[in-house]
């Protein structure tokens, strides 16, 4: 994201890609304007939150008119750096990593896995989808050469920290960590943590303890 988003609260920033996807659909369908109630229904975020989020970037809807779709679209495209593809590296081509390599992230946003790494000799040298798998010994040099800014970690938890340490001095600015390990990084690097087992466990807990809580039935914090 570019500098303009720095003043936006993080919770709002996290919802921007969600809004962007829906606004894109509206634009493609030829719609000129959208109300916060319509947006709310589609993205499952309450309309007061949407109005507050949008007010941060100066999109002030008019009563009885709503928001201008073209304005929103150009704002999101600029703010989310959609005019530029962000290059991503995947480290650890196991079951989860393989699924990511087969998934077309470009379908919904401008990120692309350019390159993958593993230590398994049976995987190194092969290609999954369009992505080459390289030996881990080439990690730093290739990240720098290709100017990769994001790393997805799908390695065993035990090696997550040492791999993280080894990419600190490269072009990497953000890590999407799918391992259960909590990572120590300097403040110049941002880590987002997605632990699928923990998410499942939390869902099981909520189903059991809040079975009738329909008001808060969508978790928008992630
Ligand atoms: P698989 O069935 O292929 O083993 P998995 O997801 O169950 O997949 P994991 O043990 O989680 O297996 O390992 C994920 C991947 O990370 C594997 O391809 C493994 O070879 C790779 N890997 C293990 N250690 C490292 C490391 N230090 N650096 C890079 N990749 C590694």
From TrEMBL:
SUPFAM superfamilies: NAD(P)-binding Rossmann-fold domains, Winged helix' DNA-binding domain. One of its GO terms (molecular function) is DNA-binding transcription factor activity. Residues 18-57 bind DNA. This is Redox-sensing transcriptional repressor Rex. PANTHER family: REDOX-SENSING TRANSCRIPTIONAL REPRESSOR REX, REDOX-SENSING TRANSCRIPTIONAL REPRESSOR REX 1. Keywords: Cytoplasm, DNA-binding, NAD, Repressor, Transcription, Transcription regulation. It is found in: Cytoplasm. GO terms for cellular component: cytoplasm. Belongs to the transcriptional regulatory Rex family. Homodimer. It comes from Heyndrickxia camelliae. It comes from the Bacteria. Modulates transcription in response to changes in cellular NADH/NAD(+) redox state. The keyword Ribosomal protein does not apply. NAD(+) binds at residues 92-97. Residues 81-182 form the CoA-binding domain. GO terms for biological process: negative regulation of DNA-templated transcription; response to redox state.
